[in-house]
């Protein structure tokens, strides 16, 4: 077993660490043994564990766990980018969320992480023309996690959504890599217009709790949007915006605000 684990670690250190943490967690809390074995240790790979979690959380009287598991397994087998994105998202949560102390926490317990991975399967379905099934996944993610991401939205890697309650991301929204956002963020439209109508969020952007970014506007790379702001106009790169409506109040304060998670606005 140790020899096998060592070989796996060379190939996939993230999954090996998750399994090591899972065994430690069972030793410290035996009552979680069944949950951790079924959710993690029973599976041969990170992707298989994610597919199991997807099916377990989204199954309902309308769609069985078995069918959803087959869909997720097919998605991860077909597109290696899904697993790569899941690992990048996991590292983002671990490095940016002070409440995250182990790799297994987001996989088992953090609804923001789980919702993003479920969205990614829904997006995979959308890209392959399986529109109605993608909508079903969107519906169940919203019901199960309180996170409503349209399956057509384009979301990069290294995404961290903290707490994740009441997140809304619209159909034509684009979110870059290494973006962090907190609860109650909306990337929405401004009315009932059709077409390209949602925000385009650059790389490394930090979006504070309760912020609303509305319309087909661009938020420049490595900018900060203060909590509670309503953003209706484009945001220059490396800037901080705040207010209702939001206005530029200064520079972002660092090169990578999404990584530092610094939300303080200091006097100029």
Could you explain the architecture of this structure?
The chain is α/β, with parallel strands linked by helices and 268 residues long. It has helices at 2-11, 13-28, 33-41, 46-58, 65-78, 80-96, 104-109, 111-127, 131-145, 257-260, and strands at 147-149, 154-155, 160-161, 167-169, 174-175, 180-181, 186-188, 200-201, 206-207, 212-214, 218-219, 224-225, 230-231, 239-242, 247-251. The protein has ten helices and 15 strands. A six-stranded mixed beta sheet has the order 3-6-9-12-14-15. It starts with a helix and ends in an 8-residue tail after the last helix. The protein folds into two domains: 13-146, Orthogonal Bundle (serine acetyltransferase, domain 1), CATH 1.10.3130.10; 153-267, UDP N-Acetylglucosamine Acyltransferase, domain 1 (3 Solenoid). This is Serine acetyltransferase. Pathway: Amino-acid biosynthesis; L-cysteine biosynthesis; L-cysteine from L-serine: step 1/2. Keywords: Acyltransferase, Amino-acid biosynthesis, Repeat, Transferase. One of its GO terms (biological process) is cysteine biosynthetic process from serine.
Query: What name does the CATH topology of the largest domain carry?
Result: serine acetyltransferase, domain 1
Poorly predicted residue ranges: none
Number of strands: 15
> Count of DSSP helices?
10
- Overall pLDDT metric: 94
CATH architecture of the largest domain: Orthogonal Bundle
CATH class categorisation of the largest domain:
Mainly Alpha
Radius of gyration: 19 Å
Count of distinct structural domains:
2
- Strands of the widest sheet, in order across it, are 3-6-9-12-14-15
Helix/strand class: alpha/beta
Share of helix, binned:
40-55%
Amino-to-carboxy terminus distance: 58 Å
Strand content: 5-15%
Protein name: Serine acetyltransferase
Domain Serine acetyltransferase N-terminal: 14-118
Keywords: Acyltransferase, Amino-acid biosynthesis, Repeat, Transferase
GO molecular function: serine O-acetyltransferase activity
